[in-house]
């Protein structure tokens, strides 16, 4: 019986014993139907306790480790482990899959940011708030909110209420209350994100599970208790399971579920208890199983339906297969590895892991005997059929035989194996034993002596009592054909039913026929176990199969359904047949395939895999650009002015495609060939082309209304285009789901859906909503090739696919052509039948019978040979399909003649008179035929290899040169038909040949890229210097090598070849074809590397040949594998057809520079770093303070000290009678605006009442009338762009984009926030894949879509549906910086992007982005400049502002005019007013009488009105404009925001700020709420906090570094970057004195408290003292010596006699004033009272240094005047509030974000009412009002991100 088919019987899962309690929690629930749902191994189980019945969900392939129940308690979600983990959602009634969520957890939708500790134990949705969830784990709890596509976490604040510790489980209640169970047994209660109370000692040990129900909460812990709590978490009752009847000592609860009066409890040891609340001491055990360790032992009782299992948990259990219950359990001393029951069913033998074995009585589990003869584990034991012997096989390669009757005395030993024993079987007469060992050897022994049997004859007649061996002739078939791996663990044969089951390492149970002799037999397979299945056995009566899982501890019981029962069982229960749908067919499918049609065979072999996909071209180009930099020394020629247009294509793709030919509505015919969709009008014999594809089209389907067509192509991420046959415009592009290619598409009957099939290994089938571009569903097709997909017209959700072995092929329609071609497509319509054949022909059959041939082409195989006639519009092609064809190139476009050849051909050539045609064949022969009749004239064969090129000499055509692939060129005399010469010397095959005009010289190219010259006719090799070669006149030029065509080789010449070229007869334009299917035109000669070109796509793979016709009117190209012949019309310069869409541009951007402007260059090159990576702003060195070892402080010294009590650390000014600590800071004012490198970021809201703008990481809403500000502070890093939604439905909705790090979707990834400007609610957060940051955002016309542009190297453009957080489309924008991208104000699909030397016009089609480059060609001398801004007009007009000050006007994507010098400098910003269409532009100009930096234009940009900004600057540089009612809002580079009236041109400055360089200097007035700032822009400005404005400004001419008020507030000292310092009088702002004693920057300057001394600290490691009482001469009186590094901060003591200096080497030193001596006595230093404290160093402030400050520093600090608080500023832009002093490391603090970059300085104002902080790079001041307990009248909104960190 060598039948290799699968058995016809099958198995059905009937019961699973066990429950997964180990390493899992919260996985046990009641469903709505009161059933219990849980999981074990890879099976979801629904158990009905009433009926004692189980249902199974088998959709997983690996261990399930988590389970959740839908709030309505019907749907279940389970998650599995593995390489590609996924989640299944299924219905607990029907156990059918509802949905599968894949690829979420390798890279997620909104990836849960796993905490650094990596362990998340529990996660719970808040049932009362739809988009909040909570997660907990090692030492953390996080509260997440889902907004847009990103989850943002807030850490729970443990505060003083509880200890920070590991949280294990959660339950959510109403009103934002969350309960969580902790590792120490406490329950923590959270309100919002704060811990409000703890319930201590709820359990004695960790709480593993918490379950909420209507009545309250149930918790279960490691202590084995279940506690019930009411809704307010007051205890109701305790159930201690360890004390109950079923309890035992180590019981630990892993899962609990409370519903009504029932409680389910799952334990660590895989038991499930059900407790009824009234009888809580009698829990009912409803499920149990083995727990820890592996499960290997399995035995079945010989006469009863019992199974025995034993495991590493040391227990042996007996299960009843009928009652599905455990009936006995006994614990042994050792882990059990195997078991056997004696033939009479009385004894149970167990083999142990330590080498012993024990025999028990089955009746009462008492021990009979315990024997230990071996040191290593026992793997297998078996009783002999007569019951006399027990064979015991162990890990040390031997089998011992024991006599049962002699109380198990050892009677024999089998030695012969070299490896451990794995399986044993006795013969029926008990005289022989066969064994298998770990090496797969099969040995035989005579019993009971144990002698090995080697005689083959003796073995022949043995009947075996059982068969459990995995090797042996009878079970050959269980092993795959070509594998020798040992992964089958167990076999058991059912002799009667002639079937056997096997168990393997992949969790699969298989059913084979028995015996099965030939390898690779068919089988049925059953999934369920997750890891390896260790053992499998038939029950005694063959009713059931029992299998056990190793790591999943489970016992599965399968019902065996023999063939005859199959028919009956079908109508018993539908559920049973479902389970079988899982039995997959086996792998060895091809073993019985019926005979295949040879064509179909070929078609299934075609792979469509490419070495290089077109998608990779941009990366390859980038890689090669580096190489080119060196080569581009020669000035490259510009691209030729002439161009070509695709005119006609011969050929139809029939050889591997089908059903791809249709009539359109208008009666035209649509089909495809190569990468072109063709619409053919047969009345006019013209073709129109859809050229949107970039690789082979493989399938085509037509919409039911016959107006749209879908085509699918080859590609790594292949796309489907849906396009209109009338306009040839794409409507939608679908991609993202098919790899390698799309082989079949079909529309549904209503035309709304589209089905497509991929050619990946599973032939995925995808159903699309094509208009939206969304995937509706995707499913694996079949492993074999699918040819056709059809949507059932009557039931649009049914698909039919046809392919190998899964539907019979339809029969052929017989059409008698010359070879009865096979038909690949049939289409009806317009009274005709269209037929497409495999030979690439399209026929039209009239109903009355006549047949017309419409289109013809070559068949399969590559087309290489192409020749054009010397004076007629015809050409010849020859192909691997063994045909030679002559084509008419005149308007009739038909094939004139065809002739079959004996072999395929690769080349052909017309003689100069056009009468003869020479053809080179693939077998090394060539023939010359009559060009009219195609009859043979002569043929030769001198070579064995392919003839690769053949050429007649010019003139009379006396010689014929024939080149072959065996490196020779033969020269024949045509007249005498003799070979006259051989050209030798080529080192590779010949690729191209050309004659010179005289017919005396041959130029030859070879495959090794050699260019060789031979003299005709003898073939002597010549060496000719390059210069001479250029002077030779060539009769033709088809060569691709040499200096004349160096420029035709692309940058990626290593990967691709230029395969062909041809020069026009006027020697001006060289056409080339290459391996990517591109046809390119170059100017000739193309000298210098990487010439400019025009490029055309139409062929799919490689273009094998190109030829101009005799009069250069057409270019003919042939594609290799796509077998098509294309004709291109040649258009001279000037005759440009207006409708013609010109070619794609060259690979490389032009060197013409796009113009230069310092601001643009700076914006382009600016590198945004994110805070997490920020480094310190000062060049510090040394050991950070918190890492230094320090001597013991006073507190640690001996307590008995007679010293005076310690004085105060800080002189406190009388702030109030009671000192109150400061509770909190709130952001109140921000001075400054980000104008220097951002634009279009100031907008009006509410009809001009409010202004919105941004600076640093804060969005600011400024009320024009009151001057008050409110802030949006959810960004965590610099904002770079801002836009306002103009649609009335979304008023005041703002989108802002920020800087970020990598695009890994983590918390530091760049993000876009969409928020409401009035109430500052975040509406959506879009984490995006733009690494580095988002530089431009724009809303669409309906306001629903948002466009964003990244700063990543590709400058990706992404379109979002921002409300859902869904990314609709994304595509690389341009390889250089994009400055702005904006939607057209009237469109949701059209937008324009501008940037460095580019402007692109984009269309959103479905989910794809299509773009066109702006065409400059129509205007003379127009060159592509760097474009900076964009605005729109009616009728598809677009205006772009350039770097030179011009404005370009575009119609569609063609430049139609230029508004020259709209501004004198770059046009940085343009704004389109939606109400009246007027356009505002802003640029960089010097103010003059007629010109201004802001201009208002009419709709066509013809007339304008200029506005001057009265800022007093030399040049105004406008970065942002916006127009409201009668006003224009202007943001400048100098960080001012100005309002200009349209009528009176009056300017009103709203916002001021420093513009350049960090602000280092900051000083607060000693008695009023004023402060001074000094920055590197050379200004010192005075600000009033209460009035919220700048009062005064002094320009110093040099960069200022530091400022200080005198104690009375009448003088100001300013230190400069150049070493000078100035003292001003405050009242008059006159200079009182100035001095320059140093050459490097002054870092800090201080007046002494008694106003006598001025201390000046500089970068020269010095502090100078000046005595102010000596008058304004300012002579230095002394200075401090040996300061180790530059000075950072200085503070005087309260009595003006000491100065503390902190330095750049993290050291703080104290000096005497005015002598400058260092004070070293630590006791003295500790007693000094300081007047101020701004030092970041010293023991008193060691706590301000954070753990994470590896790269970054704390830059500044200031202690409040009350002396009990300290604020600091650091390189992360954080303001932190500490208690002072803070001598412990890593002190607790509150944090505030406001700045983005480094903070450089921070101060309290007088009276501690405000904190003022200055930012380094963000040029702004922030002032925080201070909230203390005493000043309750402040009504500012409190900072909400107050975090406490530890």
TrEMBL record:
PROSITE patterns: WD_REPEATS_1, WD_REPEATS_2, WD_REPEATS_REGION. Residues 582-600, 1143-1156 have a biased composition (Acidic residues). Residues 119-274, 686-814, 1268-1539 form the EML-like first beta-propeller domain. It comes from the Eukaryota. Residues 577-600, 1138-1159 are annotated as: Disordered. Transmembrane segments: none annotated. Keywords: Repeat, WD repeat. Residues 295-559, 863-1130, 1559-1820 form the EML-like second beta-propeller domain. WD repeats lie at residues 217-232, 297-321, 371-402, 1096-1128, 1559-1593, 1635-1676. This is EMAL5 protein. It comes from Willisornis vidua.
